[in-house]
């Protein structure tokens, strides 16, 4: 199967028309048609754009499906996501744990496992959009997790 055919298959898998896909990527519909007929080959910028819209670029180029992560949500439904999303989530969680532990050492504070888990969860959610964790963010989540004097 050709790159052109796999490109068409991915677009259809994602439920997009040629017109919608062309609009998402900033190309003319005629260009999209030429890509899917194998007349013209898309450039790297095009592949980057379709990747951010859910296309499996590895499959389009090589014919091999990308690794997927599977999990069951709280409703019992199986969710499938590209492995790259799972890798990003793991990296953010890992960085959240490292940042929290380093801040606790510097502050000379201790948290119980439940409090640490709460902090990591908050750091993960706060840093998800951009992936960055800063000192004010860490200080805020630690202060939220630490029992206040009137709660002891």
What's the β-strand tally?
2
Total domain units: 2
Shape: elongated
Poorly predicted segments: none
Strand order of the largest sheet: 1-2
Distance between the termini: 67 Å
The biggest beta sheet reads: 2 strands, antiparallel
Could you characterize the architecture of this molecule?
The chain is built from eight helices and two strands. It is mostly helical and 152 residues long. The chain folds into two domains: 60 residues, lambda repressor-like DNA-binding domains (434 Repressor (Amino-terminal Domain)); 71 residues. The protein is elongated, with a radius of gyration of 22 Å. The termini are far apart.
Keywords:
single chain, 152 residues, mainly alpha, 434 Repressor (Amino-terminal Domain), 2 domains, two-stranded antiparallel sheet, 8 helices, 7% strand
Quick structural overview:
The protein is mostly helical and 152 residues long.
């Amino acid at each position: 199967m050709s790159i052109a055919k796999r490109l068409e298959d991915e677009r259809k898998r994602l439920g997009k028309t040629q017109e919608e896909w062309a609009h998402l990527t900033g190309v003319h519909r005629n260009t999209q048609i030429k890509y899917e007929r194998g007349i013209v080959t898309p450039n790297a910028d095009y592949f980057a754009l379709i990747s951010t819209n859910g296309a499996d670029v590895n499959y389009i180029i090589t014919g091999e499906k990308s690794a997927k992560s599977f999990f069951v949500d709280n409703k019992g439904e199986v969710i499938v996501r590209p492995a790259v999303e799972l890798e990003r989530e793991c990296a953010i969680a890992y960085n959240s744990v490292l940042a929290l532990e380093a801040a606790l050492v510097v502050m000379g504070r201790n948290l119980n496992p439940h409090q640490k888990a709460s902090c990591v969860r908050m750091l993960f959610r706060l840093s998800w959009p951009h992936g960055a964790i800063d000192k004010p963010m860490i200080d805020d989540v630690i202060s939220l997790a630490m029992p206040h004097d009137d709660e002891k």
